[in-house]
Amino acid sequence: MLKAFDFVIFGGAGDLALRKLLPGLYRAYCNGELPSGVRILGVCRREKQVTEYQDNIRAAAQEHLSADEFDAEKWQAFSQCVHPIYLNIEERDKWWDALAELLNAGNEQRVFYLATPPGVFGICCKHLSETGLITETSRVVVEKPLGYDLQSAEEINSQIAEYFEERNIFRIDHYLGKETVQNLLALRFTNSIFENLWDAKSIDHVQISISETVGLEGRASFYDDAGALRDMVQNHLLQLLCLVAMESPNKLTADSIRAEKLKVLESLRPLEGDAVKWHTVRGQYVAGEVDGKQVPGYLEELGNDKSTTETFVAIRAHIDNWRWADVPFYLRTGKRMKRRAAEIVIQYKDVSHNVYPDAAGTLEPNRLVIRLQPEESIQIIVTSKNLEKHETELVPVALNLNFADTYKHFVSDAYKRLMLDAAADDPSLFIHRNEVAAAWRWIDPIIEAWQKPEHRPLPYAAGSWGPDAAHELLIGDKRSWFIIDELLERGKSDGN
Ligand code: BG6
Asked: Does the model's pTM come out above 0.90?
């Protein structure tokens, strides 16, 4: 049973709080998941934000929750436990004492959510410590970006570690809060049909792809400094790769899960020097059409025609261990792509001998498709006979587990899940400092190699699937990026 807690959001009037955190906490409230006595304190750095807080968070909730979810009465009740407070994180003044007074008179369980730029993580933790607010039952949640490279990540982590013990530092990667991502663990470790088919003997390759249709979304300066590799691959894609590739933890504890993930990160074959040329593709979008609308190119959106920041990455990665020897993991992510989708595709090897004549059609390999977005589903692609035809025609069909159909009330909210886990002191779905470091250790040499002019990003039209080189990366291996709808469409049209 979750105990009542105080949840302090530094950056309480910021974009993350308004778009994700407060709507997530509201959902928890509506589901009866918030114990009575919970207090949510939104830290504002301007007094005006304090006076306008309730109006602003309500307007944002209306915008970011669906019409079905937002209920004026429930919001009114929920907002009784949300309190704006004025504080300048960097100034150790009387407002910190006011915060201390408020918290000391409140709940024992405390969560400090740092929804701020990492530049102030250190000073915020220092002030929390100086005001005596860090207790045995206090936890700090930190958002990405955790650094720009290994060195800066270590600096940030060391600053936090001066005040909080590792077990109380919750580094968030919201992809780990997506229910289908956790279901991947359940699928792998509770079903013997998969357990026995989860290695280089059975699997041909794995694709992990997160495509977005959005562009810069008002984050130009952050994004242009980061680029797709730092923004998406270093964290989300590598975490997904870990969950696909890790060994079974001996227990479902945070320590065991993290230890297995770390082993995967440490087994990634380094990509350095020339290898970067063969195994990575960088792209940057130019003007094109997304969802029927003409959109500008990255440089125009940014207002700087010199930027060489990548908005697309594709990588062929290898994990050098017994289980995964010679199984490529293709990673891909990009902005302004054709469709919004996040998918993990496990492609099995071809059957060893095809007994059917060519006229029966080409055999498609089996695939397990774990879709995280736009809807959460798991599909197994198998080959079946077209039952409507007398002669044998083989077509790919999908065995479907669509969570929206199966769980009618299921609303996916990764942030809600992770905030409640932090409140319950369960760090299983949060990232250990060593994982952050191992991920940067693999990413840094790629970034270094990309500094050479030959690695300038290749243009791709907004609304496409990325530069041609990303397709060639797989074609060279006699494979291709998997698009489920196209495959199933083929099955249908073949059958008609
Ligand atoms: C964030 C990135 O971590 O994840 C964004 O900084 C990206 O650039 C976002 O758009 C994608 O998250 P989701 O859950 O919408 O796929």
From this structure: yes
